[in-house]
Design brief:
By secondary structure, the protein is of the alpha+beta class. It has 15 helices and 15 strands. It is globular.
């Protein structure tokens, strides 16, 4: 699990989201990245009234009951171990706060069951498999150590427990999404939110840059494309005519690293677009057990095996291959961008004009190469929150200076060449409603979501059986968990 980062650097902001809430959101919003952390050392219990650093050994026991869920002392210890392994800063955070976080998770999961939220079982099983394989890769295949950590006598029992952990996290995420899914913010609410912040407590936004780039991508030859098409046709024929395993071929040949650990498995839903259109169109045209002909997407060439249809959900496995690039194509692309850079430096053409004419990146070329911030959806990038790789490429650039040529890659292209420039710079400044509207809108929406969650939580706690045991009854919780004490 990773800590959820606020999209803006805020100082003296009255409405800042509490660490407690952020920590909770980070857990349920990152289920796909959740890890189960093994530890060879004994689990250590930490006193509730001080920071995480003070410790003592405690016996196992039931710490709380929320609805149908039981929270053990070891659950909290394991939660702390996972957060620390993920690099979370827990300084000044008490066991009571983290215990409250577990209570929230169980409350969401309990209510999700009451509301009959459906669980994607194949998705949960694939997560368990990824987690186990990931841990074994880190511990050199030490399954015995993993079983000892979880106090399980068999791999089957371990998988069952990990399935329950992931299922409950999945339910919690689905329930929270349900609570906030219909919350929207109006321009008037944004204005009210901003005006309610005292002038001397308004947020300060850090230095922001506008960045543009020109990208040149080496061309793939028709021969290279045909080669992967024929290879995929061979895979299809071998499975259909010789009984070969499609999953085995995935493990040996696919270039989709995300699905490789699960044998190329994806679950598609007709009502919830997830994959690119070409992939979905082919998948939904197949019959159970049928393998598609090779087809192209922006990622490369695929074949799909439709494994199972379950109502609106389609379980598919796929193999992805990407055509090889020739050295000649790579050299031509580099030569092209060198010429473009020289034209800009010599003043023959502006950066924006060159981007529109020569850039191969369709997402940016028609905007004169301007990059869009994926968080704020505008052209501004806060310097301190920029991705490290992008920051390293522009950190020494003066405004309108042209960078050197960088060789890069992305999820679609193995190799691409690019040049960058800083087109505008805004220094640290106090929030301005007109200039920073999108950022203020995001803060206002978060504030409204928090209030909705607090309201939902308050009502749900009163309607749910909750029992807090032992020393945790002395905790000062932010929510009314002790109503029955």
């Amino acid at each position: 699990m990773r800590l959820l980062k606020m999209p803006l650097r805020i100082t003296n902001l009255k409405f800042t989201i509490s660490f407690f809430y952020i920590l909770f959101c980070s857990s349920i919003l990152s289920i796909s990245a959740q890890e189960i952390i093994p530890d060879e050392k004994p689990l250590e219990e930490k006193t509730k009234s001080t920071s995480i650093d003070s410790t003592k050994i405690k016996a196992e026991g039931v710490a709380a009951v929320v609805g149908e869920f039981i929270i053990l002392e070891s659950d909290l210890n394991r939660e702390i171990a996972q957060l620390e392994a993920q690099g979370a800063d827990l300084e000044g955070v008490t066991r009571c706060q983290l215990f409250g976080r577990l209570l929230e998770q169980k409350l969401y999961a309990h209510q999700a069951i009451q509301d009959s939220v459906l669980v994607n079982e194949l998705y949960i099983q694939s997560l368990v498999e990824q987690q186990i394989q990931g841990i074994l890769a880190q511990t050199k295949g030490d399954m015995e150590g993993l079983l000892n950590f979880y106090k399980k006598d068999s791999e089957k029992a371990l998988r069952e427990e990990m399935y329950e952990i992931n299922k409950n996290a999945y339910l919690a995420k689905e329930m929270q999404d349900k609570v906030i899914s219909e919350i929207e913010i109006t321009p008037e609410e944004v204005r009210t939110f901003f005006n309610d912040i005292p002038k001397d407590e308004r947020p300060t936004f850090g230095t922001e840059l506008k960045i543009a780039q020109i990208v040149v991508i080496p061309e793939v030859t028709e021969e290279a494309k045909q080669e992967v098409i024929e290879k995929l046709k061979g895979f299809k024929k071998d499975v259909e005519e010789n009984g070969s395993s499609f999953t085995t071929k995935v493990l040996f040949y696919t270039e989709d690293t995300a699905s490789k650990p699960t044998g190329g498995l994806y679950t598609l839903n007709r009502k919830q677009p997830r994959m690119v259109k070409e992939f979905r169109d082919v998948a939904f045209s197949l019959q159970e057990g049928e393998i598609s002909e090779p087809f192209e997407t922006e990622f490369g060439y695929h074949i799909i095996l439709l494994e199972k249809i379950r109502g609106q959900e389609y379980d598919v496995r796929h193999i992805l291959l990407r055509p090889e690039l020739t050295q000649e194509a790579i050299a031509e692309a580099r030569e092209k961008i060198e010429k473009v850079r020289k034209m800009i430096v010599d003043g023959e053409v502006s950066f924006a004009e060159a981007a529109r004419e020569f850039s191969d990146e369709k997402e940016t070329k028609f905007e004169g190469g301007q990059l869009t911030n994926p968080v704020t959806q505008d052209f501004n990038f806060e310097l301190t929150k920029m991705e490290p790789e992008l920051y390293s490429q522009i950190q020494d650039l003066k405004d309108n200076e042209i960078s050197e040529i960088f060789q890069d890659e992305d999820r679609v292209n193995r190799i691409k060449f690019k040049i960058l420039t800083v087109t505008d710079r805004i220094d640290d400044h106090e929030a301005d409603f007109a200039k920073d509207y999108l950022k203020i809108k995001e803060l206002a929406l978060q504030d409204k979501q928090i209030k909705a969650i607090e309201k939902w939580q308050e009502a749900t706690i009163l309607d749910t059986y909750i029992k807090i045991n032992g020393e945790y009854r002395d905790c000062e919780f932010e929510s009314n968990w002790l109503k029955n004490q």
